[in-house]
Sequence to fold (175 residues):
Amino acid sequence: MFWQDIKEMKNHHDRSAEELALFAVEFFRYVDSRSALTADAQKLIKWEVMLGIPVDTSKSLSERRSVVIAKLRGIGTVTKELVKLTAESFEFGEVEVIEGDGTVTIKFISELGLPPDLSDIQKALRDIVPAHLEIFYEFKYNTFAMVKANFATFEDLLNSGLTFEELLTTKLGGA
Fold:
């Protein structure tokens, strides 16, 4: 006879499984509450204070999380990969890091226009890139050729209702 066939043992096993499942749920809830990726507003403040980041509650949680994550990633030896990871932690797509003679260029390659939290990106990168290196930023915009290819006439362009800013930063068909 196996212990699984004993009614008391089966009952004990079932209760233990329920307790273990409850423990797992609480454990992962605890871990999530301690992670910068999932921290609520109060826990995020603790991360910001611990890392010496000014608390700015006027920014969205997403923007504040990006600053915390960038700061955490920026700890350690500065490499091209670290600079890329830090810049990409700000939810504005992919970047390319180009090293030059005394310079580092951050080229935003997957999104059009300026990142909404550019000043936070600049601060995070300035904090990790050695002070003797100058940092340049390159942004992606629609070109005249792209606009010309998407609008047959100037009247079509005017009828689109796009502002100049939108014309530069809106993904155009075929662009």
Helices lie at 7-34, 41-51, 61-73, 80-88, 118-128, 144-150, 154-159, 164-169.
